[in-house]
C-alpha cells in the first residue's frame, strides 16, 4: 500500500461478467474489492478480459445483468463515465495533438470550471511531478512518445480522480524508456496515493507496480495476491508460468512425503495423495559440487542474460531443469554438475493435487 494511502475511492465489482452482442464471453462474472489508495494490476495474456474489466469499472461498458460496480460503497453501475470521476490513460495517448502540453493537462479542469489561477498552479505541480517541466508550451505533435505518455498521465490525474485507470500505458514505448517510466510511474502513484487499476500483459511491470495483482486467463480470475504471493505461491501451472520462469516437476508422494528426484521433502499441507505437480523457480536452485550434492545432471545449454546466466541441466531424472547462476560461476556445456534445492523453494501446485 502507498505511503499516504487513502486518497480516491474504494472500488468493488460484484458479479461483473460481460457477453458482447456477437456472443463473445469476454468476462465471466467476477467479484473484486480494491482498497482506497491501492494499486491493483490486471495481468494476463492478450484477450483474457483485462480491458473489458477496466472498461466496466470506467463506465464505458455495462456489465451483464446481475453485475454491480460500487465506488465507496455507492452503486455506480448506471452512472456514465463522465460522472464517475475517473482518470484514464490508454496505450494510445488520445491527447489533443494541436494543443499545448499545458492546455492538454488543464483541459479537464477547464471544462469543470476551475479558475485560471488554480489551473495554472495545478498544471505547474503536475508538470514537475511528471518530469516534463520546460515543455509546457510545446504542442503534442512536437513531443516524443515518452513525453506524450507523461502528459497523458498528468492530464488524467489533474482532475484529482477518485479512481485512476491505466490500460497498457507503457506498451507503445521502447524497452529502455518503458523501464524508466515504470520507475517514475511507481513514484508518481505512490506520491498521489490514488486508487489505481492498471492493465498490463507484462509481468515485470505488474510486479513492480502492483500492491496486488489479479492474474486473468480466458475471461476468468486465475489468482489474486501480492506480487510475492503470485510469484512464490501460484495456485496453478498457468499462473506459475505466466509470472516468471518455472520448472514444473511431476512428483511422487509416498506416506505424506514428496519424493522429488534427489531428495524427499515433507511439505506441510496434509497431503494424502500419491502424485503432485511441483514448481521450482530457476533462481532457487544452486549449482554445487557434483560429489557432495544428491542431485546431478549434465549442462545442456548456458545463455548469458545480462545480470546472470540461465543454465539448462538435463539428466537430473526430472527432465531438463532451468537454473539461474551468477555470471562468475564457471559453467560450460557438457559439465557434470550437482544441484541443491531447498525444501522451502518447492511449491506444490494445489490445482493439480
Ligand atoms: P489485450 O491485452 O489484447 O487488450 P484483453 O485481456 O484486454 O486483451 P479484452 O480486450 O478485454 O482482452 O477482450 C476480451 C475478449 O473479448 C477478446 O476475445 C475480445 O476479442 C473480445 N471483445 C472485446 N471487445 C469486444 C466487442 N466490443 N465485441 C465483441 N467481442 C469483444
Automatic annotation (TrEMBL):
* Subcellular location, principal: membrane
> What's this chain's function?
Involved in beta-(1-->2)glucan export. Transmembrane domains (TMD) form a pore in the inner membrane and the ATP-binding domain (NBD) is responsible for energy generation.
* ABC transporter domain location: 11-243
| Compartments reported by the entry | Cell inner membrane
Top-rank taxon = Bacteria
| PANTHER family named in the record | MALTODEXTRIN IMPORT ATP-BINDING PROTEIN MSMX, TREHALOSE IMPORT ATP-BINDING PROTEIN SUGC
Q: What is this protein called?
A: Spermidine/putrescine transport system ATP-binding protein
The alphabetical list of record keywords is: ATP-binding, Cell membrane, Membrane, Nucleotide-binding, Translocase, Transport
- Topological relation to the membrane, as annotated: Peripheral membrane protein
Give GO terms: molecular function aspect only: ABC-type transporter activity; ATP binding; ATP hydrolysis activity
Please indicate if the UniProt record lists Transcription regulation as a keyword. Answer: no
Entry's family note:
Belongs to the ABC transporter superfamily.
Q: Which Pfam families match?
A: ABC_tran (PF00005), TOBE_2 (PF08402)
Please tell me one Gene Ontology term that the record gives under cellular component. ATP-binding cassette (ABC) transporter complex, substrate-binding subunit-containing
Amino acid at each position: 500500500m502507498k505511503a499516504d494511502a487513502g486518497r480516491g475511492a474504494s472500488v468493488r465489482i460484484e458479479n461483473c461478467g460481460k457477453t458482447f452482442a456477437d456472443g463473445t464471453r469476454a468476462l465471466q462474472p467476477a467479484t473484486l474489492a480494491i482498497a482506497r489508495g491501492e494499486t491493483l494490476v490486471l495481468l494476463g495474456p492478450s484477450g483474457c478480459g483485462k480491458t473489458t474489466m477496466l472498461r466496466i469499472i470506467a463506465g464505458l461498458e455495462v456489465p451483464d445483468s446481475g453485475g454491480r460496480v460500487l465506488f465507496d460503497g455507492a452503486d455506480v453501475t448506471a452512472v456514465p463515465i463522465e460522472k464517475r470521476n475517473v482518470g484514464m490513460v490508454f496505450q494510445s495517448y488520445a491527447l489533443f495533438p494541436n494543443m499545448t502540453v499545458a492546455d492538454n493537462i488543464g483541459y479537464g479542469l477547464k471544462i469543470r470550471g476551475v479558475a485560471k489561477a488554480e489551473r495554472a498552479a495545478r498544471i505547474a505541480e503536475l508538470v514537475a511531478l511528471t518530469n516534463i517541466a520546460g515543455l509546457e508550451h510545446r504542442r503534442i505533435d512536437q513531443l516524443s512518445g515518452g513525453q506524450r505518455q507523461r502528459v497523458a498521465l498528468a492530464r488524467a490525474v489533474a482532475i484529482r480522480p477518485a479512481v485512476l485507470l491505466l490500460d497498457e500505458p507503457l506498451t507503445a514505448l521502447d524497452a529502455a524508456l518503458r523501464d524508466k517510466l515504470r520507475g517514475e510511474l511507481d513514484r508518481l502513484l505512490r506520491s498521489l496515493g490514488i486508487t489505481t487499476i492498471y492493465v498490463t500483459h507484462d509481468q515485470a511491470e505488474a510486479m513492480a507496480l502492483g500492491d496486488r495483482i489479479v492474474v486473468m486467463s480466458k475471461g476468468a480470475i486465475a489468482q489474486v495476491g501480492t506480487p510475492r504471493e503470485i510469484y512464490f505461491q501460484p495456485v496453478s501451472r498457468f499462473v506459475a508460468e505466466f509470472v516468471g520462469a518455472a520448472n514444473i516437476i511431476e512428483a511422487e508422494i509416498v506416506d505424506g512425503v514428496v519424493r522429488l528426484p534427489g531428495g524427499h521433502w515433507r511439505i506441510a499441507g496434509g497431503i494424502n495423495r500419491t502424485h503432485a505437480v511441483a514448481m521450482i523457480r530457476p533462481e532457487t536452485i544452486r549449482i554445487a559440487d557434483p560429489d557432495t550434492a544428491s542431485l546431478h545432471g549434465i549442462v545442456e545449454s548456458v545463455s548469458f542474460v545480462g545480470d546472470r546466466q540461465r543454465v539448462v541441466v538435463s539428466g537430473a531424472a526430472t527432465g531438463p531443469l532451468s537454473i539461474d547462476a551468477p555470471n562468475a560461476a564457471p559453467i560450460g556445456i557438457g559439465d557434470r554438475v550437482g544441484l541443491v534445492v531447498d525444501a522451502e523453494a518447492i511449491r506444490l501446485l494445489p490445482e493439480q493435487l
